[in-house]
Fold this protein.
Amino acid sequence: MPIDPYILLLLATVGLAALFPAHGTAADVASGASTAAIAFLFFLYGVRLSTREALDGLRHWRLHITVLACTFVVFPLLGLAARPLVPLLLTHPLYQGLLFLTLVPSTIQSSIAFTSIARGNVPAAICAGSFSSLVGIVLTPLLAAALLGNSGGGFSTDSLVKIVLQLLVPFLAGQLLRPWIGGFTARHKKVLGLVDRGSILLVVYTAFSEGMVQGIWHQVSPARLAGLLAVEAALLAVMLTLTWYGAKALRFGRGDRIAIQFAGSKKSLASGLPMASVLFGAHASLAVLPLMLFHQMQLMVCAVIAKRRARDPEVTTPPAPAAPDAGSRTAVGTGPRSR
C-alpha cells in the first residue's frame, strides 16, 4: 500500500518542531509567516477553483447533494457519536481534533485520481470535489462554531474575524482575479504546487512548535494514539460502506457510485490544516494530528479499493457478441460465397 511522500515530509516537520521549537522573536516571525502563508494558500485556491464548472456540475444535483450530505452531515454525526469514547480511548483534545476532522471538506485531487483508477465517473468526481471545497470555505467554520464552541482552542468572535480575513477574503480575491491570472497559475502549476506544500509545512511547523512550547504533547501517549487510529479506522470503514451501498440504494450507476464513494469518504488535508491553525491557535497541533493520520489512512485504503474496482467483472469482461437471428443465419447460409 502506498505511503504518501508528503506525509513523510509532514512527519519530518513535526520532528523538527519537536527538536527545535521556535521561541521568542523566532516564534513571532514564524507565526506571522504562517498567517501570510495561509492567506496566500486560500488566494491560490480561489484562483484555481472554477466556480462556473462547479456550478455547471449541479445538473447532476442528486450526486452532489449525496456527496455534500456525506461530507457535512453524516461525517459530523459520526464524530458526535464518538463523544462517549472520551476518556476511555481518546483525550478531550484528541476528540476535538477528531470532530474537527469530520467537518473538513472533501479532497479534489485524490478523489479524481482514485475515481479514474477505478474507471468511475471522473467528471462527477471533479465537480463533487470542487463543489465540496467551495461550500467548505464557509460551512466548515460555521459547523466548527456550532459543534466545537469555545472548547479545544477557543472558537470565538475573534476566530470568526480571523477566518473571514485569512480564509474567505483571500479566497474571494482569488475568484475575482481568476479571469486575469488564472492562465498564469495554470502555466506555473508545478511551481505553485511546491509553494502550496511548502506553505502547509510552515503552518504545521508553527502549530507543532507552539504545542511543544506549551507542553501539550505530554497529553498524548502511545495508547492514546493507538486508540485514535482504531477510531479513525472504524470511521473510514463506516463511511466507505455507507457511500458505496447507500449510493446503490439510491439507484446510482456504477460510475456514479465510485465517484460518491471516493469523494464522500475522504477529507482534505490541504484545506483542513490551515483552517485548524486559524480555529485552534496554540492548540492546533493536537487538532491536526487526527486529520494527518486519517489522510494517510484514506490514501492507503482507497488505493487498494480503486485497484479492485478496476477489476470488476462488469468493467473487465467484454460483452458477449450478439447471436445472429434466424434471418441472418439464412442469409449467410444461402448467399453467395465471398471471394
In short: The chain is about 75% helix and 0% strand. Confidence is low (pLDDT under 50) at residues 316-339. Residues 147 and 306 are 33 Å apart (CA to CA). The longest helix spans residues 157-187.
